[in-house]
Write the structure tokens for this entry.
Amino acid sequence: MSLRRWMVAGLLLGAVGWWFSPLSPRVPDAPRIAPAASAVAGSASPASNPLCPPPPRVGIGAAPLQSPVPVGFPTLHVEGARLTALAGFSVEARVLSRRDYAFGREADYSPTDLALGWGRMRDDAVVDSLSVEQSGRWYFYRWGTGSPPIPSREIAMSSANMHLIPAGPDVAAALKRVRKDQRVRIDGWLVELHGDDGWRWRSSLTRDDQGGGACELVYACGITPL
């Protein structure tokens, strides 16, 4: 291949990478509500989402609030799947890292993961002593030589990687604007996603687990910068 073709190929790959990066103007679509679900809610527009009432909100500076699902809370049908609420969820946290995903089945529903920290995992002195990375829907942290800035168990219990499913276009746009080190409040529901073909994706229901299945899968009704 000639040098010119290599240069053109490099420019094209760079353009594609930019388009799918947080710096591009692209806003990933929220999962489209199935017509049947919209009809039940009295709305003919599949782009709107009346089936995401916010749960009880977390107090300022408090740990994430998980609350029971009200009796009769509906199952939401989206294209190719349904979402079953497992618990209400409200978190006020610092964004330790974000990672966008454009490919894979999970990306059809959750375009972005946010690694969030609360408690002392919001403090500059702690966060600046850690290296935070995300990859493959996982969240990783490490520190330099010596001891961690706070006990490692506290780090694990005061931070988490969360898969965000935006409830509608406005939430998708708000998620697009979230940046590292910003403080946000996210109100929504921990859910289990059931694909029409039997595929499943289930949220963790505790903040003290680690490893596979420890991430929260959040159907976000609202994302508010603080």
Q: What stands out?
A: Residues 14-19, 35-48 have pLDDT under 50 and may be disordered.
